What we know:
The complex is a heterodimer of chains A (475) and B (94). Chain A folds into two domains: 7-129, Glutaredoxin; 147-472, no CATH class. Helices cover 31% and strands 22% of the residues of chain A. Chain A has helices at residues 17-21, 23-31, 59-63, 89-96, 121-129, 147-153, 167-174, 197-207, 214-224, 231-236, 250-255, 269-284, 320-323, 352-363, 384-392, 397-407, 412-420, and strands at residues 7-12, 35-40, 52-54, 68-69, 71-76, 79-85, 87-88, 108-109, 112-113, 138-141, 184-188, 193-196, 242-248, 306-309, 332-345, 376-382, 410-411, 431-432, 440-444, 452-460, 469-472. In chain A, the strands form six sheets. In chain A, strands 13, 14, 15, 16, 19, 20 and 21 form a seven-stranded mixed sheet that branches. A five-stranded mixed sheet of chain A has the order 3-2-1-5-6, with helices on one face. A two-stranded antiparallel ribbon of chain A has the order 4-9. In chain A, a hairpin with a 4-residue loop joins strand 11 (184-188) and strand 12 (193-196). In chain A, helix 8 crosses helix 12 (269-284). With 94 residues, chain B is of the alpha/beta class. Chain B has a domain at 32-91. Helices cover 26% and strands 22% of the residues of chain B. In chain B, strands 3-2-4 form a three-stranded parallel sheet, with helices on both faces. The radius of gyration of chain B is 17 Å and the shape is extended. The two termini of chain B are 26 Å apart. Chain A binds chain B through residues 134, 136-144, 147, 150-151, 153-154, 156, 164-167, 170, 188, 191, 193-194, 199, 202-203, 206, 280, 284-285, 287, and chain B through 1-14, 17, 19.
Amino acid sequence: MQLPDEGLILVLKEDCETCRMIAPVAADLARRGLLAAVYSQDNPAFPPGLDVADDRELEVSWRLNTEIVPTLVRRRGGQETARTVGWHREEWQAVTGLNDIGEGLPEQRPGCGSLAVSPGMAEELQVRYGDTGLAARELAVPFPEDPFEQMFDRGWTDGLPVVPPTPARVLRMLDGTRRKADEIIGMIPPSGEVCTVEKAAINAVMAGCRPDYFPVVLAALDAALDPDFAYQGLMSTTMGAGVCIIVNGPIARRIGLNSGFNALGHGFRANATIARALQLIVINIGGAVPGGMDRSTMGHPGKFGLCFAEDESDPSWTPLAQSRGVPAGASAVTVFGFCGTTINNAETAREPEGLSRSIGQCLNAVYHPGLAGGGIGAVLVLGGEYGRIYREAGWDRAQVEAALHKATERPSNRLIAEFMGEEAQGQPGEPVRKFADGDLLVVRAGSNAGLFSTIIHGWSSGPRGSQPITREVKP
Amino acid sequence: MREPTVLLDPTSERSDAMRARKTPPASLEGLTVGLLDISKGRGDKFLDRLESLFGERGITVERFAKPTFAKKAPDDLAAAIAERCDIVVEALAD
Lengths: 475, 94
């Protein structure tokens, strides 16, 4: 749509009290031959009696960057030379060069919101009339073919429906970060294909993320691409590993990440979609397709994604991220390669020593009761009641971790025998720790009712396997 | 009519945007050909002729028919064709 190069241009909508109020002024300007064009956003018959251009498609409103109606613009030689929004008599006099307009009207009235900036509209208009700057290939799904079925057919999913990644949705997702769309994040395993921020945004849209989750997705992806995380091995192992994302800091509350009831389960959009975004990235960009480059023998339900926030409501408990060097008050993610979860109960334990020994029995089952001494990792999620027992005994994180390491020490000859499926012979051998330093992470999550903890089983851990990685969440 | 839905490709874009058609077999020898009548007028006549031509060449043929052309094939019918035939000829038009 071509804008007049000279004269006054007025953009308005009937559904705006101020626009209706200034309709006589518009008629006055038209009578004097000063009004080059009037554009209506909602009803081309308004204002009555004027030659009104239909801008229900909002192209002119978008090209004029109209945020408020009415907007009055003066153009000379194809350039904008003056603008006013709403009704303010002196400003209208300045823009029009007339001192005798709007008699009988109040001195000023605020305008109304332009339809061009109604929620979600700006990105749609940018896609339609502007340059999105997006680089990804576009695929048109003709009506009435169902885009959801098309995405299944193309193998773009984890088996559940995905949100269609339209350009407008992807622009909104990219608004969630300050990082540039064309920034290369890294090479995604198993195939090693390049992932840009834009490609990550496309997959985050498909996973169902809101734009304000996107910085968490990017931080988790950065963490997972740290060589020490061994993402390549995790995504192609026969053992069937997924990525567990533990979030600390204020961003968890801001985006509604659950740390309470059912924290490791369903029902919360942020929990459900952030980890799913990572999984879609390795499927779609990394090519981690089951039976293809994903060689999982049987996998586990957590391969759809597991993300939760740590319960930071107890000030005596040092949050995981802080225990790993992140400053207090900062938001961070910790990624952990895992092969499923088990819940365990030590419901009769009422004091911290016995509780630690009881939990230790369950921790010994990780991988195999007969395996210990490095390469084995786990996250222990302490529910609220276990947290209370430790807190009331005055135990801090360091004491809890030390007690759990002690509780999982076992004699070497017994370990070997158990692993071989035999009875242990002779005197107990040297005690061997189940978990090396850094391979057992302890976090607090879940509701305050129920004497439970959950063990998140690691994959091959330690320096020769996958190590947990913590990264601050940056905007 | 509605405009197409534009999707942005979430992949590494190593494969063609257009999905390749299934490669036709080099020979029909030893294969079973399904003949699907969608219940449009005289489709059966066309398929009768095809059946006799295939028969002359010693090619196994199985006949199928949709109850009505106005609706998609019932799932059991589609499954039977997929299980028993290697290729299918569909008599689409009047």
